[in-house]
Structure formats: structure tokens, C-alpha cells
Design goal:
Elements: H1 4-10, E1 19-23, H2 27-32, H3 38-59, E2 63-70, H4 78-101, E3 105-109, H5 117-130, E4 137-144, H6 146-162, H7 173-178, E5 190-193, E6 212-215, H8 225-236
Parallel strand pairs: 1-2, 1-5, 2-4, 3-4, 5-6
Helix pairs in contact: 1-8, 3-4, 4-5
The structure holds farnesyl diphosphate (FPP).
The site of farnesyl diphosphate (FPP) has 20 residues, from α2, α3 and α4.
């Protein structure tokens, strides 16, 4: 098997994606394959997340976005939803000091008002503590849905038009993007989806117009630095034409 050192030598550090997005998939299947309950897959997936964030910091990547909880994930069992929320709280309180030491700035993509006050407190703490950091922009998509995001942006622009603060002629792609959670950030250059499925699952629908996709059979709890590096190298070997 290829080593991390070999992969690092293949990587062109001057040509990294500015924004990497990840659909952290396969936690449930990882656990079931080991005779464990699904929640243990999420727990194991935390370690993968820690590794990837650390690597993004080391490489100087500008933006990392992870899909932690979708608008559809509410359909899961109460136990699983509560467990995921507990993990999020634990992650934020445990990691915030190290994240801040590494200048990581946390942003939430999604409407988190629906979460319990305990979850909201953890999120607000992390946002506040990290707000002046100027390193990696770490977006955590929570109660996020791409269609919902687009509809919400449309509503805000429609309200501005209705109240005379915006002219219809002023609406263009740049203005639209400015009304999304990712306003001001570059679109993802690379989207990684582990666990063998080839779909987008309502993730960053507007932002991925020209994103390169990278898929692997490896399930998220087994996803390690070597997989991330492999994705970066494959990305660097692609020719991006942006429709041109
Ligand atoms: C998808 O796997 C994963 C999720 C819905 C949750 C991802 C959450 C984590 C990795 C926990 C750590 C994250 C934070 C921010 C604390 P799945 O359950 O759909 O897997 P399956 O397709 O095998 O069932």
C-alpha cells in the first residue's frame, strides 16, 4: 500500500484546491459490518474528521465543508439523532481550543435554530471563540439542505425587491451566491464522497456547479490522511475546463 510520505512527494503544494467539501458517508454500514449499532460508526467517524481538519490546516487549505447533519436526517431514530447531537456538543467543546490554536474559524451552514438550547450553546460558543481566526474556514453543515438554502436565499431577495431595496435587474449569479450560507467563500473545487455511493444528496447544490467529484469505497470511519491526499493528487491530475 502507498505510504503517506510517497503521496506527499506526489502532491503539488502550490496547486491545492481552495475549498474541499466532504459527504461523511458510511458510518452506519461501517458499524453494522462490525456487529455494532450504527451510532458507533458516527463515533468512529469523529476521529476521521479530526484527522482531516488537521491535515487541511497543515496544507493551508482555505475552506473545508463537511456534511454533518442534513435536513433529511431528522427521519432517523430519536436515539441516533440524539447521539449525533451529543457528538457534536462533545466535539465542539473538546476541540475548540486546539482549533483556535490552529486559527480555524468555524461556520455553520444550515438553520440550527431547531436544535436544543444545549446544542445551540455549543455552536454559539464555537462560532464566537473562533470568529477572529484567519486560518482554515471550517464549515459544518447542520440541518442543511441545498434546496432549502436556495429557497431561503430566493425569499430574502424577493423581500428586498418587494420593499424596494433591490431591483430585479440587479439579481445575478454573484448576488445570488452572496445570499447563500457560503457567501464570500470560493465554491468547492473538490467534493469527496466515501462509502461507494455516487450521489450528491442535496449538498451544496448551487456551489458544486463546476466541482470535481472524488469517490471511494472506503467508509468514513476508515477514511484517513492517505485517502485525503490521494483525492488531492487525483484532483491535481484533472483538467478543469469550466465549460470552456
Ligand atoms: C452519514 O453516514 C453520516 C452522518 C449522517 C453523520 C456524520 C457525522 C459524523 C461523522 C460525526 C462527527 C461530526 C461532527 C461534526 C461532530 P450514514 O449514517 O448515513 O451511514 P450509512 O450510509 O452507512 O448508513
Amino acid at each position: 500500500m502507498v505510504t503517506e510520505e510517497e503521496l506527499i512527494t506526489q502532491l503539488n503544494k502550490s496547486c491545492l484546491p481552495r475549498h474541499v467539501a466532504i459527504i461523511m458517508d458510511g458510518n452506519g454500514r461501517w458499524a453494522l459490518a462490525r456487529g455494532l449499532e450504527r451510532i458507533f460508526g458516527h463515533q468512529a467517524g469523529m476521529e476521521s474528521l479530526r484527522e482531516v481538519v488537521k491535515l487541511c490546516v497543515e496544507l493551508g487549505i482555505q475552506v473545508l465543508t463537511v456534511y454533518a447533519f442534513s435536513t433529511e436526517n431528522w427521519k432517523r431514530s430519536r436515539l441516533e439523532v440524539d447521539f449525533l447531537m451529543g457528538l457534536l456538543i462533545k466535539y465542539l467543546y473538546q476541540e475548540i481550543d486546539e482549533l483556535c490554536a490552529n486559527k480555524v474559524k468555524i461556520k455553520i451552514l444550515g438553520n440550527f435554530e431547531k436544535f436544543t438550547t444545549e446544542v445551540q450553546a455549543a455552536i454559539n460558543m464555537a462560532i464566537e471563540k473562533s470568529q477572529s481566526n484567519n486560518g482554515l474556514n471550517f464549515n459544518i453543515a447542520l440541518n442543511y439542505g441545498g434546496r432549502f438554502e436556495i429557497v431561503e436565499a430566493t425569499k430574502v431577495m424577493a423581500q428586498k425587491v418587494a420593499s424596494g431595496r433591490l431591483a430585479i435587474e440587479e439579481i445575478n449569479e454573484v448576488l445570488f451566491a452572496d445570499h447563500l450560507y457560503t457567501a464570500g467563500q470560493p465554491d468547492p473545487d473538490l467534493l469527496i464522497r466515501p462509502a461507494g455511493d455516487f450521489r450528491v444528496s442535496n449538498f451544496l447544490l448551487w456551489q458544486i456547479a463546476y466541482t470535481e467529484f472524488w469517490f471511494t469505497e472506503v467508509k468514513w470511519p476508515d477514511f484517513r490522511r492517505i485517502h485525503f491526499l490521494q483525492a488531492l493528487i487525483d484532483f491535481q491530475n484533472r483538467e478543469r475546463r469550466f465549460g470552456g
